[in-house]
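Hello again, I could really use a second opinion on something today. I owe you a coffee for this, so here goes:
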Amino acid sequence: MHEGTRTDDVTQRLGYRLKRAAAALRGAMDRALRAYDLTVPQYACLELLDQRPGLSNAELARGTFVTRQSMNVVLRGLQDAGLITRPATTDRGRALPAHLTEEGHRRLAAARSAVYAIDQRMTDAVPESRLAELLADLDRMASALD
């Protein structure tokens, strides 16, 4: 839609279409991750900690698109399940850094293949010749709203 263009059918708006795709992705991930006893935010947290061990609650919240309060709940659940460790205190004056346990690494590896298969199904739905352009467009849309 260009400025000044109007449609009365909300289902034809870009934002609606993006939300629909995001909801479909979330639903597919929810279903797949259930088999690994993980939620989407828990999985995203494990992925980030695998890439960058020691991230704080605030850093994880930003990286997984949830609030700090929600990330506290996610981290508690992962810690209770034995998937991450966090020190009781830190001497560096920093938020408590989180790290994957061996079980966390195992659970992530098992769930990752299911999530990547979902991502591949989505990717396969886009003609290969248009994928790079679509990804660039999505990045530009996000930047336009930041």
User: Anything to note?
Assistant: The first helix runs from residue 14 to 34. The helical segments are 14-34, 40-51, 57-64, 68-80, 102-124, 128-145.
